[in-house]
Amino acid sequence: MGQAAYLSKHHIIESNYRIGFYVSVPESIRWPVLGVAILAAVVGSQAVITGTFSIIKQCSALGCFPRVKIVHTSSKAHGQIYIPEINWTLMLLCLAVTIGFRDTKRLGNASGLAVITVMLVTTCLMSVVMVVCWHKNLMVAVAFTLFFGFIEGLYFSAALIKFLEGAWVPIALSFIIFTIMYVWHYGTVKKYEFDVQNKVSINWLLGLGHTLGIARVRGIGLIHTELVTGIPAIFSHFVTNLPAFHQVLVFLCVKSVPVPHVRPEERFLVGRVGPKEYHIYRCIARYGYRDIHKDDTEFERDLICSIAEFIRSEPSSAGNSTILFRDPDSAEEKMTVVGTSSSNLNGVTISEAEADSGSLSNMAGASAQAETVTTPDKPRKRVRFRLPESTPTLKAETEEELNELMEARESGMVFIMGHSYMKAKRGSGKLKKMAINYGYEFLRRNSRGPTYALSIPRASTLEVGMAYHV
């Protein structure tokens, strides 16, 4: 308002279009106003940084942005996060724009177009919210958009006039970010479609027999996959190249769902792949975009307890919450909702102790014991499952399956990670080749792995590579 008043008195000056904000400020208060402006810039920058972190985290959880490192800076407030890569990127962009322009007029043009574009987009999205979420009349939403959109459209058209004088910067940055998000999402969808189309049928697994046609060694093999049904192609690739596999196999799928939080009692979906003697399970771990992933030790404990609880309650699973996944190429998989060990107080819990910490009680009571396994690198440990006191007498096959799981847990867990390399098929268009062969592969190589894989001990990780064309 002060600048407008100054312009109203000095509009005759030939160079009035060069009059900046500080020219209109009286010299006696120019330095105090500069201090207030610096403080306002600090507050505004913090809002921009916080908003950018939040948007990047949610886009990454929904598969629309390459994975980045997300640090939770508060154990109480889940929304307080820090993303180092984005923070450095913002700093470099700010320095580049400031050094490149060296003129507050161009900076103002760029900022003005960015602000009015945000307001215009917000108005359009608000009209969608009014119809879809608030169930308002369509005419009310149209009237709202026309009224505010007309006012903001005038400002937007005025800002576009300054396009060549700095206003092109936010449009160029938005185009670059949009291209990155689109290429990453396109490549992720294509990768998932290939996995779905090339997954192995259950009939192939049944044809191998309960030993999978190879030697079964002690331990748990945790195979990470994006599929919620069927057997991933990476598993058949592994089986045909190595002569041994673990006595217990778990297909683990970690899914980020579009909700803030997933309740701990609904964290896992556990099911069985093949007959019982195969000892193959499927587990789907669901996380909201504001949930904090646990460390590897606590996650392993919750995972094993959820499988043990599924085995214990499977005969009476008709009363539990179940989900059926139907696959035309395989049998229906019945998944049971199982919570974490901390949320399921009436479920199976796990206890690990050193081998010389005393004897363990029998399975018929409150726990089960297994033979101690000695490894050269790790101290000897005994694992036991503690069942609720209200648990009825277990069947022999259920007890045997729990003992098998417990023995495998004592022997250790191996994380099997698949690395796939995508190439565009011959005859594909130039845009698709550029997006898949160069864009997506560049982003995949320079982005972080899945969040659950960051804390996996490298000594217990087995990586399997596979190349395919989409």
TrEMBL record:
InterPro entries: K+_transporter (IPR003855), K_trans_C (IPR053952), K_trans_N (IPR053951). One of its GO terms (cellular component) is plasma membrane. It comes from Kalanchoe fedtschenkoi (Lavender scallops). One of its GO terms (molecular function) is potassium ion transmembrane transporter activity. The keyword Lyase does not apply. Residues 219-469 form the K+ potassium transporter C-terminal domain. It is a multi-pass membrane protein. The chain crosses the membrane at residues 31-56, 77-101, 113-134, 141-161, 167-184. This is Potassium transporter. Pfam families: K_trans, K_trans_C. It is found in: Cell membrane. Residues 1-205 form the K+ potassium transporter integral membrane domain. Keywords: Ion transport, Membrane, Potassium, Potassium transport, Transmembrane, Transmembrane helix, Transport. It comes from the Eukaryota. Belongs to the HAK/KUP transporter (TC 2.A.72.3) family. PANTHER family: OSMOTIC STRESS POTASSIUM TRANSPORTER (PTHR30540), POTASSIUM TRANSPORTER 8 (PTHR30540:SF10).
